[in-house]
Amino acid sequence: MKFIILNSTNIVSNSNNTKLLYTFPSGQDLTGHQLALASVSMYNSTFNITVLNRNNLFKYIWVDGVEYDVKFDDGNYGVPDISSYMQFVMEQNGHYLICNKTKLNVYFVSFALNTALYGVQTNCFPMNLSLYPLNNTDDGYTQPQYATWSVPPETESKIPILNILAGSQYLFNDIIGYVSGYYPKFENDTEPETQTQTFISTTAPQISPLSSYLMRCSLIQNDFGTPNDLLYSFPPTGVFGSQFTLSPNQLVFIDCKGGGKQNDLTIEFTNQMNLPTAIQDGNMVILLAIRDYREKTGLKV
């Protein structure tokens, strides 16, 4: 049995740290050989919300009736982070009020993790001059100086509306477990609900679209598998940013391709759906085991 080690020096440029290339010192005829993953050590560093994942955008309609984007930078976001980022965008747009007494910003949409119901809870709060009087007293509120909108009058309470976009190019709804649509429901000029509105996920939130890495290898040929070059599958382990090591208790050998000498091999990582992914930290070590099974069985090829 022989071993091959790949590390960060084998990473192919512009591959998002997901493709590694190993060149044999001389061409190798691997007919009759088998390959197995002996160990892999890497960091849990795959972002959950990215342009690549197509889940980085939703919209909201403010009380002025104008729709605005919430577009995330690529990153790793938990539910509190999603809520904070949305409120950061609202702050940039001037879509909040300032409590005169506490000097704290008051936001009118929030996301929260509801562990009891295994979902993401959204709260949308109504606004008007009765609930939030604009004055200089401790009981009053102030608009940010750069605000271009008006607080609705006492008789015309309004509420912000989320637009969770539909279509295969918009997958933010999977992150929070919502059906695409408006929250609260909004149609043309129909006035939305004026009371505080609360929503909860209708499907299990996929906070991390990555549940498992598929490790593919150009040397192997598994006619019973899809993809047929699948070497191993394993989930990222530990908290985001931590290092983890996988060492199978028993090596799972898969037949290598025959048909002449091989000059190199490639290892490529995809997600559990065999779709492209990205690994932020390329600091990894992969140990592969190669054996000639004819030596053990006495078979002749």
**How many individual helices?**
3
What does the largest sheet look like? Answer: 5 strands, antiparallel
Specify the helix fraction band.
under 10%
**pLDDT under 50 segments (min length 5)?**
none
Q: What is the number of domains?
A: 2
The SS-based structural class is: mainly beta
Secondary-structure element string: EEEEEHEEEEEEHEEEEEEEEH
- Can you tell me the overall shape? elongated
Distance between the termini: 18 Å
Radius of gyration: 27 Å
Mean pLDDT, all residues: 93
Number of strands: 19
Please state roughly what percent of the residues sit in beta strands, choosing from under 5%, 5-15%, 15-25%, 25-35%, 35-45% or over 45%.
25-35%
Q: Would you write up a description of this structure?
A:
- The structure is a single chain.
- Strand 8 (109-114) and strand 9 form a beta hairpin.
- The chain is mostly beta strands.
- 8% of the residues lie in helices and 34% in strands.
- It folds into 2 domains: 2-46 and 210-297, Jelly Rolls (Sandwich); 57-200, no CATH class.
- The strands form 5 sheets. Strands 1, 3, 16, 17 and 19 form a 5-stranded antiparallel β-sheet that branches. A 4-stranded antiparallel β-sheet has the order 2-18-14-15, with no helix packed on it.
- The longest helix is centred in the first third of the chain and has 14 residues, at 79-92.
